[in-house]
Automatic annotation (TrEMBL):
Keyword vocabulary terms for this entry: 4Fe-4S, Electron transport, Iron, Iron-sulfur, Membrane, Metal-binding, Transmembrane, Transmembrane helix, Transport
Transmembrane segments annotated in the record for this chain: 49-69, 96-117, 169-187, 207-224, 351-371
InterPro entries: 4Fe4S_Fe-S-bd (IPR017896), 4Fe4S_Fe_S_CS (IPR017900), Cyt_c_oxidase_cbb3_FixG (IPR014116), Electron_Trans/Redox (IPR051684), FixG_C (IPR032879), Ig-like_fold (IPR013783)
Pfam families tied to this protein: Fer4_18, Fer4_5, FixG_C
Superkingdom per UniProt: Bacteria
Gene Ontology terms for molecular function: 4 iron, 4 sulfur cluster binding; metal ion binding
Organism: Pseudacidovorax intermedius
Name of the protein in question: Cytochrome c oxidase accessory protein FixG
GO cellular component labels: plasma membrane
Occurrences of domain 4Fe-4S ferredoxin-type (ranges): 268-296, 300-323
Length: 482
């Protein structure tokens, strides 16, 4: 082997790539400004139902504070005196169980309605939907149709534009302020609140909440509208967990509608291989959240049915069958079910269980409200004097009783005690409590000295209406010192 063959081979030159010139800096916006939606007015069955719910909900909201029950407001949540008046009922903070029951019933109702037909609450009864509908109606009456509103917003500022915009906002603010005033009227007697407003003597908290609620109504219904439903409301995000393939939703039938294309009424669309959708985009123009239902179910859809009304109107004009866009289920659409088949499947075990549990809860809560004892008693030991020897050689414990009269009539209550031999209660005269009032009473329980062993003994303090009626027994501890 030659020496040259044993010589080490020199390393090849390493080529280090030269980095390419970095790209020019590019600003990426983390927020894409939304395009303003101009919903088109529509007529139809679901639009009428929607307005019926607007009238019903606002009749209740605006009207309830002005109803009287005897000499007081029928519905009043008096936080200052910790009384909650619901027509003939007087509730105390101790009746929190009824509020809990109401919240459970509301949640279960939401589950039931969503399992049956999706976002019915959102589309017809949600305050955001209701007030947005009212504000859009005002906007339409002042600024005109969808086309007129778009043209007005695109024009430069003029006297006509200034007057229309100012007039619209004045009406919006008036509705918002009346809404805030009504809201506070559920916590402060509304007639007193109105008188205080006219005399400019409203309290600072009342002024704050009137303006806060008015501002929220004005901002949410006048400006944010669909943004609240799409981005702020959590219901839109977790609704899919309550949907299944047998939930009624607003759906577009692609089997009938595709391929879509514009055409005249006299065109034989079947001969041309077209579907029934004429691509008029009315379903998009009437949508309050601005979606295209033809792209399938989207979380932004609030199930209001406006697109159903618009499409049915077009189908009638084209002499096509109604229902290209309709309330249907995924299984019903795939299987081409009849309405009878559809409803039999909608009323499935899950829905029946929800409905049965909801009915039991409602009945149970109503029975509990009717059968509740209109008397509340709280027992608090007087820690300043645990036990003492009183006159006559008796051993005495002192308590403080809060007696709450949950009726609207003055009542007299007698006190008694049970649990130890020879136990006596003072005062032994009836305790008077005014209508819907609470009174603290100092109560002394005494037993003969030496009649009980040292330690803590359980006794019952009984409070009952004089002459029979409501009766409550509360446990207490009687201490016998060593």
């Amino acid at each position: 082997m030659s020496a040259s063959s044993n010589a080490p081979t020199p390393n090849p030159r390493r080529v280090i790539p030269i980095a390419a010139e970095p790209p020019a800096e590019e600003a990426v916006s983390l927020y894409a400004a939304s395009k303003k939606i101009y919903p088109r007015a529509v007529q139809g069955m679901f639009a009428r139902w929607r307005w019926a719910m607007v009238f019903a909900t606002q009749l209740v909201f605006y009207g309830l504070p002005w109803l009287s029950w005897g000499e007081r407001q029928a519905v009043l949540f008096d936080l200052a005196s910790r009384r909650f008046y619901l027509f003939g009922l007087v509730l105390y903070p101790q009746d929190l169980i009824y509020l809990s029951g109401l919240l459970v019933i509301s949640a279960l109702s939401l589950f039931l309605f969503t399992a049956v037909a999706g976002r019915l609450w959102c589309g017809y009864a949600c305050p955001q939907t209701v007030y947005s509908e009212i504000f859009m109606w005002v906007e339409q009456k002042i600024e005109g149709s969808r086309t007129a509103r778009m043209r007005l917003d695109g024009e430069p500022l003029s006297m006509e534009k200034l007057v229309k915009k100012a007039y619209k906002h004045i009406v919006w603010i008036a509705i918002a302020m009346w809404t805030g005033f009504t809201f506070v009227g559920y916590f402060t007697p509304v007639r007193e609140l109105g008188l205080a407003f006219l005399q400019t003597q409203m309290g600072s908290w009342e002024v704050f909440w009137v303006f806060f609620y008015a501002f929220a109504t004005y901002g949410n219904a006048g400006f944010m509208r669909e943004q609240v439903c799409k981005y702020m409301c959590p219901y839109a995000r977790f609704q899919s967990a309550m949907f299944d393939r047998d939930t009624l939703i607003v759906t577009y039938d692609p089997g009938r509608g595709e391929p879509r294309a514009p055409r005249g009424r006299s065109v034989d669309y079947k001969a041309r291989g077209l579907g029934e959708c004429i691509d008029c985009d009315l379903c998009v123009q009437v949508c309050p959240t601005g979606i295209d239902i033809r792209q399938g179910l989207q979380y932004e859809c609030i199930g209001c049915g406006q697109c159903v009304d618009a499409c049915n109107t077009v189908m009638e004009k084209m002499n096509y069958p109604r229902g290209l866009i309709r309330y249907d289920t995924v299984n019903g659409m795939a299987g081409h079910w009849s309405r009878a088949q559809l409803w039999r499947r909608v009323l499935r075990p899950r829905v029946l269980i929800y409905a049965s549990v909801l009915m039991l809860l409602v009945v149970g809560m109503l029975v509990s409200l009717v059968a509740r004892t209109p008397l509340k008693v709280d027992v608090v030991r007087d820690r300043a004097s645990l036990a003492r020897i009183a006159e006559g050689g008796r051993l005495e414990n002192v308590y403080r009783l809060q007696i709450m009269n949950a009726t609207e009539r003055p009542q007299k209550y007698r006190l008694a005690a049970q649990g130890l031999e020879g136990i006596a209660v003072s005062p032994d005269t009836p305790v008077e409590v005014g209508p819907a009032e609470a009174r603290w009473v100092a109560v002394r329980l005494s037993i003969p000295y030496g009649s009980a062993t040292p330690g803590s003994h359980s006794v019952r303090i009984e409070v009952g209406e004089e002459g029979g009626g409501a009766h409550v027994a509360e446990k207490a501890a009687f201490l016998v010192p060593r």
